[in-house]
């Protein structure tokens, strides 16, 4: 499947024929960042959502993501956001924190009876699930969840910028850009940096 093609409801339709009724798509944002929480979105998206632009959030501009965000919320059957804090990332590692954020998002949607998850399967999830490689490119509900997660996290990083303007969080959202690494070298880490990550080892 081309990365330029739109995600579809193929997997959701298949599960509906098997008797599942509330199929939730799950994706995360911020796994690869050096600062801030990891945030997961969970969305039950109806087959008649009629939002053709929904796709993997990484393929969309910030402007388009912001435009899609309220549309997805308005037309979804249910949606939720879960997160894992910088402290939890430090304590358990990013993979486990990622699972925790996704599980928290799914568990906020009580009616969900099946989960389609980008790339992973989530340990200890209470409902059946399927991990789909590049699910945000292929599965409509996962793509919708990716937009919710990305916009939510980006907005949080903009708020952090107000407290720590010297790092440029508004621009890079905590990812390891040249500008961000240079700011860390000058100012050292702040309270939302993931101190378990390699760039901070010399500091610790």
TrEMBL record:
A divalent metal cation binds at residues 27-28, 118. InterPro entries: RNase_HII, RNase_HII/HIII, RNase_HII/HIII_dom, RNaseH-like_sf, RNaseH_sf. Keywords: Cytoplasm, Endonuclease, Hydrolase, Manganese, Metal-binding, Nuclease. The keyword Oxidoreductase does not apply. It is found in: Cytoplasm. Its EC number is 3.1.26.4. CDD domains: RNase_HII_bacteria_HII_like (cd07182). PROSITE patterns: RNASE_H_2. GO terms for cellular component: cytoplasm; ribonuclease H2 complex. It holds the Pfam family RNase_HII. It catalyses: Endonucleolytic cleavage to 5'-phosphomonoester. GO terms for molecular function: manganese ion binding; RNA binding; RNA-DNA hybrid ribonuclease activity. Manganese or magnesium. Binds 1 divalent metal ion per monomer in the absence of substrate. May bind a second metal ion after substrate binding. GO terms for biological process: DNA replication, removal of RNA primer; mismatch repair. Residues 21-204 form the RNase H type-2 domain. Its cofactor is Mn(2+); Mg(2+). Endonuclease that specifically degrades the RNA of RNA-DNA hybrids. Belongs to the RNase HII family. This is Ribonuclease HII. It comes from Candidatus Uhrbacteria bacterium CG_4_9_14_3_um_filter_50_9. The gene is rnhB.
């Amino acid at each position: 499947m081309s990365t330029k093609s739109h995600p579809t409801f193929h997997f959701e339709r298949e599960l509906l024929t098997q008797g599942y009724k509330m199929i939730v798509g799950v994706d995360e944002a911020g796994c690869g960042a050096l600062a801030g929480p990891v945030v997961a979105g969970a969305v039950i998206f109806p087959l008649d959502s009629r939002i053709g632009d929904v796709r993997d959030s990484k393929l969309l501009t910030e402007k388009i993501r912001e435009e899609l965000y309220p549309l997805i919320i308005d037309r979804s059957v249910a949606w939720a956001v879960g997160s894992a804090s910088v402290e939890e990332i430090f304590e358990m590692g990013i993979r486990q924190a990622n699972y925790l954020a996704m599980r928290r998002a799914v568990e906020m949607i009580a009616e969900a009876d099946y989960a389609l998850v980008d790339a992973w399967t989530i340990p200890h999830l209470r409902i059946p699930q399927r991990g789909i490689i590049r699910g945000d490119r292929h599965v409509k509900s996962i793509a919708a969840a990716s937009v919710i997660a990305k916009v939510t996290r980006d907005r949080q990083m903009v708020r952090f910028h107000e407290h720590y303007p010297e790092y440029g969080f508004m621009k890079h959202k905590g990812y390891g850009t040249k500008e961000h690494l240079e700011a860390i070298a000058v100012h050292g880490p702040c309270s939302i940096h993931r101190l378990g990550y390699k760039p901070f080892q010399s500091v610790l």
